[in-house]
């Protein structure tokens, strides 16, 4: 009997028992839908977490915290280390910054802002992707570049209760009204000397404004000064990086500042695939690092375990549905014993008879799996739409934008169909074997 004839024979027999076959397919579809929807929660939450991590950090960025010494000590990164990093294959850029160890107070007229201040190497920053929205990079020691959001926090010195808006910016009516490019700001730094607070003011000109951050919730208020300006601050404070002394602290007898030590070093890989290789090389050389790839690896491992558990639980539903398939196929063998007897009498091979019943059981399973998959997509869409509304109405809280409760990647229906196909084959195997052992004479008398 040809395969096409076997399919026609199977369909004809299924039509004779529409109700029973329908209920069996329905049970299988429900089991598949349960498996897919349950596992889709793991895929959805993983997608949301990974998206959140990758949006907050640049995926090709590697933070280098220093170098571990053989005696267990720890030292900051130096120019020699920078040179080593730049020689590593697939490294795009190595940025290095030193941070002013006090809030820099910048003022112009009756407006001021306190923010983080850095000294950086602009050529390496540009290689890493640093861009300006206006102006140019500093060419003189007294020229500075400010972050995109700095003009929005340069507000009045007067005490105002409702100074900031919901974005953390100074409200327009209290904000410096003019374009900052070309304007001279006064940087004020402080230090305790003989129990009294003293101030030093430095005149700096804004020549560049950084590019707007890619995400609305991100803000860049940084100010970049020259190394010479930082040296002037250190000469005044008598401390490294302009660090403020406490009331009981005494200034060091000698200012000991190592020019080639850096507070913040970042390596940028050429692509995401190269990050792990670079991290491994740095680890071998005793450089502790952090990258998004490290975090993603841990997150993905955790969610892989969770998804495997959810798929296992969902498989139980399909196993329960397989009981219905087993029952349907057992009854089919009993009801069709005369047909089996006739096929044997005309010389049908027992393997062909077995194949027909396995074909029928797998046919039922695959139809149920396809219906269950289609239904699961509808349920997944409904879950992502309805649950945020329920949470908002019940608890009065807005969920983070882009949060996905349920996500069905292509691999999930494929896993479900494979599991369902395997289970239905196992369910139909014993009834199919029983069909090959039907006695021809008893079958003709309608006895099994």
From TrEMBL:
The membrane-spanning stretches of this chain are 21-45, 301-326, 363-390, 410-429
Q: Where is the ABC3 transporter permease C-terminal domain?
A: 311-430
Keyword Membrane listed: yes
Q: Which InterPro entries does this one have? A: ABC3_permease_C, MacB_PCD, Macrolide_Exporter_MacB
- Name listed for the protein in its UniProt record: ABC transporter permease
- List the subcellular locations: Cell membrane
| All copies of domain MacB-like periplasmic core, residue ranges | 22-283
Bilayer topology annotation: Multi-pass membrane protein
Keyword annotations for this protein? Answer: Cell membrane, Membrane, Transmembrane, Transmembrane helix
Has the keyword Transmembrane been applied to this entry?
yes
Q: Which residues form a coiled coil?
A: none
Against PROSITE patterns, the record matches this protein to: PROKAR_LIPOPROTEIN
Similarity remark = Belongs to the ABC-4 integral membrane protein family.
- One Pfam family, short name: FtsX
């Amino acid at each position: 009997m040809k395969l096409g004839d076997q399919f026609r024979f199977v369909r004809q027999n299924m039509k004779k028992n529409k109700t029973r076959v329908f209920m069996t397919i329905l049970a299988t579809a429900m089991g598949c839908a349960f498996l897919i929807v349950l596992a889709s929660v793991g895929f959805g939450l993983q997608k949301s977490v990974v998206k959140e991590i990758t949006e907050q950090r640049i995926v090709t960025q590697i933070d280098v915290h220093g170098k571990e010494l053989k005696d267990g000590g720890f030292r900051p990164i130096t120019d020699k280390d920078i040179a080593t990093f730049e020689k590593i294959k697939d490294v795009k850029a190595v940025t290095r910054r030193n941070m002013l160890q006090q809030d820099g107070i910048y003022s112009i007229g009756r407006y001021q802002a306190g923010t983080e201040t850095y000294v950086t190497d602009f050529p390496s920053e540009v290689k890493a992707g640093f861009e300006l929205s206006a102006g140019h990079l500093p060419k003189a020691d007294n020229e500075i570049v400010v972050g995109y959001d700095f003009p929005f926090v340069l507000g009045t010195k007067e005490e105002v209760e409702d100074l900031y808006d919901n974005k953390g910016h100074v409200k327009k009516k209290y904000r410096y009204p003019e374009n900052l490019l070309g304007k001279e700001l006064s940087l004020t730094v402080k230090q305790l000397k003989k129990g009294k607070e003293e101030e030093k003011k430095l005149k700096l000109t804004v020549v560049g404004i950084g590019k707007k951050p890619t995400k609305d919730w991100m803000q860049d208020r940084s100010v970049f000064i020259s190394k010479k300006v930082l040296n002037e601050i250190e000469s005044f404070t008598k401390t490294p990086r302009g660090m403020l002394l406490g009331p009981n602290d005494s200034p060091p007898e000698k200012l000991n500042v190592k020019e080639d030590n850096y507070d913040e070093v970042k390596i940028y890989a050429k692509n995401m695939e190269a990050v792990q290789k670079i991290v491994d090389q740095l680890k071998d050389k005793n450089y502790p690092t952090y990258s998004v790839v490290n975090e993603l690896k841990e997150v993905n491992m955790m969610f892989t375990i969770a998804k495997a558990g959810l798929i296992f639980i969902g498989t139980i539903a399909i196993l329960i549905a397989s009981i219905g398939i087993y029952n349907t196929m057992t009854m089919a063998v009993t009801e069709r014993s005369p047909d089996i007897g006739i096929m044997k009498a005309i010389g049908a091979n027992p393997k062909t008879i077995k194949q027909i019943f396995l074909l029928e059981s797998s046919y039922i399973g695959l139809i149920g799996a396809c219906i269950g998959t289609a239904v699961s997509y509808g349920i997944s869409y409904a879950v992502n739409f309805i649950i945020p509304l329920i949470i908002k109405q019940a608890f009065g809280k807005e969920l983070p934008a882009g949060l996905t409760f349920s996500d069905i990647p292509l691999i999930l229906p494929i896993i479900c169909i494979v599991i369902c196909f395997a289970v239905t084959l196992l369910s139909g195997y014993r009834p199919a074997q029983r069909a090959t052992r039907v006695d021809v004479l008893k079958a003709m008398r309608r006895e099994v």
